[in-house]
Amino acid sequence: MTVTDFRIVTNTAPEPDLLREANHRISNHLSLLAGTVQLQAGALARGPEKLSRAEVSGLLREIAAKIVAVGHLHRRLAAQPGRHSINLGDYLIEACATLVATLSLGGRVHLMQRLTANCNVTPEQAQHIGLMVCEIVMNAVKHAHPTGLPTQISLICRSEADGRMTIEIGDDGVGLPEGEDAIRDGVGLKLIRSLAHALDATLRIESDSLGLTFLITLPSRIHSIAVAAS
User: Fold this and answer.
1) How buried is residue 215: exposed, middle or buried, by Cβ count under 10 Å (0-12/13-18/19+)?
2) pLDDT in tens, 20-75
3) In this structure, what DSSP letter does residue 106 have?
């Protein structure tokens, strides 16, 4: 009997810089996504013993929306290889449109954008901001109008005079219930705070009877890095 000698030939050539960078980004973004899912899992473990079909379906749809957001960013990066900055305004418009389509929210959400052209960030910062905006939009859909009325959401990105950048997301709902606990509690708000902290950003939440607004201000050094890389 003849025994064939099989050998595995490996390519020892160095990995191209672009591919190595892409793999690094994908790994980081998937880790970030896994962290958000783990946060939700922890909240479920502390929650009620049983969930309705509608609640489970909603949770799965929200996870799917986050996965789609990550995929959307990487499609955008693949279309512009070698780019180290992203126009945040364009990215957020596309990300919100994708979110609305993924969650079948057509007719329930009306988006208004006022975005300046020079809001550039790195892909990693875009991913954090995109997940924050997705979480804020999903929270607005669920809580802004308890009666089920369509929710109007405004999305603003602007550069401040001191070089910082502010992203403002607001809705026209009933605002938060009275009391500090309403701001601290909730998986969505904890996730938003965690993502803002990772960016070293300032997060301010304003609430009244005319709606709820999140203001995320990035330090000037983040904006400078992205502009220099563009």
Assistant:
1) middle
2) 656 656 666 677 777 777 777 777 777 778 888 888 777 777 777 778 777 777 77
3) B
Q: What are the backbone dihedrals phi and psi of residue 84, each rounded to the nearest 5 degrees, phi first?
A: -115, 5
Share of the chain residues as helix, strand and coil, in percent rounded to the nearest 5: 50, 20, 30
Structural domains of the chain ordered from first start:
17-229 (3.30.565.10)
Which distant-in-sequence residues (6+ apart) come within 8 Å of 127 by Cβ? 29, 32, 69, 70, 73
For residue 5, the Cα-to-chain-centroid distance in whole angstroms is 51
Structure tokens at 195: 């993502």
Closest among 117, 171, 115 to 141, alpha carbons compared: 171
Q: Which residues pair with 112 in a beta bridge?
A: 154
* Sequence-distant (≥ 6) Cβ neighbours of residue 125 within 8 angstroms: 199, 218, 222, 226
124, 157, 208, 185: CA torsion to nearest 10 = 0
Strand pairing report for 109-115 and 86-87: unpaired
Q: Which of 123, 127, 119 is nearest to 168 (CA)?
A: 119
- Sign, CA dihedral 199-155-75-225, equals negative
pTM for the model stands at 0.73
**Per-residue pLDDT tens digits for 118-156:** 788 888 888 889 888 888 888 888 888 888 888 999 998
Which of 66, 121, 61 lies closest to 91, judged by CA? 121
**Burial status of residue 67 (CB atoms within 10 A of its CB: 0-12, 13-18, 19 or more):** middle
